[in-house]
Structures are given as structure tokens and as C-alpha cells.
């Protein structure tokens, strides 16, 4: 179980204490199948194993893994509108009258009632974990909106979950631009092979995106001399993890390098043991990386009220 993208939030020590009841709280919000007339359902699914009695959390030391699930009916608006138009046209031809707005609305509602039970269902899953010791919420997505939606599910289950977005004391754009322009990278950090540069003064300014390129190249330096700033930067940490860091401190394209994956070995005998080993390795490596992000950018943990 290795995550690919990370969106991060923080919480206080008091919130960490409240998370001891997470498994019990999630049990009342288990994902159920979409009903015939429902467009979607949201809830929690077992992060390890399957079945109606499988636990909804998986804990290793101070880390607790959970998975937010969803079912969405696929009923494209174009399909509904085409069928609506067909019915409206049929009424006009057979009864010789126009269909008013109120009647169109009623016909559309009847169509949804007719079509929803036959619509395909799309499943979604998002893994996440809480680090109670250091106060991190780590969600496997690069979308802030998706992360916020997942946290809303946790808040609904717990009644309250005041996890907050990162509030860096050091501006990520300024710091990453300095790393790229002047080579002032912290110890253990090295440039990767991609970046996104933009003119920070305007929302519609020129954008330069480089991939699979030496970031020390003169072409990249010229963009920086022309006033562009770093909005995303490919990096490698301790020759163990590669990733692309965004100016919002989201992490994309997270990859554990061979020296890390080799530590997992080939097999651990059964699915539960393999899940434990994988999750333990993930959290150990990310604990080190997140501690450095906290140091480099100044990411204070919220204090208790």
C-alpha cells in the first residue's frame, strides 16, 4: 500500500487524543451501496481485507490507516437531456401544444426516476492516515477539493475533526525558486528532472513546464532570469524518495526508490502481514520527509485551545 500523491493537513495534540475512538466512530458510517434513486453514497471501507465485518482502520504504532469510499451513478446530462427533448417533441407532435417550464421540470424528474435504477455505478477509494504522534493527516490525492471532501466524512463520523491546511512560515515559491536558481538545497535534497515555472505577477502569464530535463540547464536558468518563479519542483530526498512538490506543498508523483522497495522483500506470507510491512515502511519514510518539510518551510503544529 504505497501512496502516489499527498495532500497534507495538521492537527493539535488534543485532537490526536480524540482519534483513539476513530475505529468506533467510522463503524457507524460504513459505505453502503447506492439505492435505486440515489445519485451517490459516501462512507468508509476496510483499508485492509474485505467483508462486512472487516475493520475500518488499520493501526501500526501511532499511525492509523483508513479509506474513504464512494459510489456514484453515471447518468450523463447529455443522455437525460436527449431523452427529455424526445419526450417534449412527442407531446408537441401528438397534442399540438408547447411544453412549459414547469412541465419540463416534472418530465425531467420522472426521467431521473426511470433512468437512475439502470445507471452504471462507479466506485471510488481514497486512502489516508493520521499520525497521532506528529499531528499529520496524509491523504492520497493531489486535489485539495477531494481531500476536503474526505475530511468532511471524518468530521461527520467524529462530530468534530479540526484538521487545518498547512500554514508555511517560509513562502514555498520563494524557497523553491532559490533552490533551483542558486542551488541552495538543504542537505539530503537533490533536484529531480521536472519543474513548472510561471510569472508570479499575473495569473495569465507565460508558463514553462520541463520534464525529463537537467534542471541546471541554461534554458531553465534563462526562465528564472526573466522573472519566473517555481510553482512545482521535482526533488529527490536522501536517494530514497522522489516526488514533485507544489507551491501549495502538495506532493505528486511520489515514488519510493529501489533502495526502499527492496527493504520490503518479496513476500510476507499473508495479506495482513504484507499490509503491515508496507504501511510501516510508508509511514517511516514519510515521517522523515514530513519532518524535513516542517523544518524547511516552517509548518507549525496547531496548539491546543
From TrEMBL:
Lineage summary: Bacteria, Pseudomonadati, Pseudomonadota, Gammaproteobacteria, Lysobacterales
GO cellular component: bacterial nucleoid; cytoplasm
Keyword terms, alphabetized: Cytoplasm, DNA recombination
GO molecular function, one term: double-stranded DNA binding
Similarity remark: Belongs to the RdgC family.
Functional description taken from the UniProt entry: May be involved in recombination.
Single biological process term from Gene Ontology: DNA recombination
Superkingdom to which the source organism belongs: Bacteria
Organism: Rhodanobacter denitrificans
PANTHER family: RECOMBINATION-ASSOCIATED PROTEIN RDGC
Cell compartment(s), UniProt: Cytoplasm, Nucleoid
The protein's name: Recombination-associated protein RdgC
Amino acid at each position: 500500500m504505497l501512496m502516489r500523491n499527498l495532500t497534507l493537513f495538521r492537527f493539535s495534540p488534543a485532537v490526536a487524543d480524540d482519534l483513539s475512538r476513530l475505529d468506533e466512530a467510522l463503524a457507524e458510517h460504513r459505505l453502503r451501496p447506492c439505492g435505486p434513486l440515489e445519485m451517490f453514497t459516501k462512507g468508509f471501507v476496510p483499508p485492509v481485507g474485505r467483508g462486512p465485518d472487516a475493520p475500518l482502520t488499520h493501526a501500526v504504532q501511532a499511525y492509523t490507516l483508513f479509506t474513504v469510499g464512494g459510489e456514484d451513478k453515471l447518468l450523463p446530462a447529455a443522455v437525460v437531456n436527449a431523452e427529455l427533448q424526445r419526450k417534449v417533441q412527442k407531446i408537441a407532435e401528438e397534442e399540438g401544444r408547447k411544453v412549459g417550464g414547469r412541465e419540463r421540470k416534472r418530465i425531467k424528474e420522472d426521467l431521473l426516476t426511470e433512468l437512475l435504477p439502470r445507471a452504471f455505478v462507479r466506485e471510488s477509494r481514497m486512502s489516508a492516515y493520521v499520525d497521532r504522534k506528529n499531528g499529520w493527516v496524509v491523504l492520497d490525492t493531489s486535489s485539495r477539493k477531494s481531500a476536503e471532501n474526505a475530511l468532511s466524512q471524518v468530521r461527520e463520523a467524529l462530530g468534530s475533526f479540526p484538521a487545518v491546511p498547512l500554514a508555511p512560515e517560509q513562502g514555498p515559491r520563494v524557497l523553491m525558486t532559490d533552490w533551483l536558481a542558486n542551488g541552495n538545497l538543504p542537505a539530503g535534497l537533490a533536484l529531480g528532472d521536472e519543474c513548472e515555472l510561471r510569472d508570479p505577477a499575473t495569473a495569465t502569464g507565460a508558463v514553462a513546464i520541463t520534464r525529463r530535463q537537467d534542471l541546471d540547464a541554461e534554458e531553465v536558468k534563462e526562465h528564472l532570469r526573466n522573472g519566473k518563479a517555481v510553482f512545482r519542483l521535482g526533488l529527490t530526498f536522501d536517494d530514497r524518495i522522489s516526488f514533485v512538490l507544489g507551491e501549495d506543498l502538495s506532493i505528486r508523483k511520489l515514488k519510493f526508490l529501489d533502495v526502499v522497495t527492496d527493504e520490503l522483500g518479496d513476500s510476507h506470507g499473508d495479506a495482513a502481514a504484507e499490509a503491515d510491512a508496507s504501511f510501516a515502511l510508508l509511514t517511516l519514510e514519510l515521517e522523515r520527509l514530513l519532518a524535513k518539510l516542517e523544518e524547511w518551510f516552517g509548518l507549525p503544529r496547531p496548539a491546543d485551545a
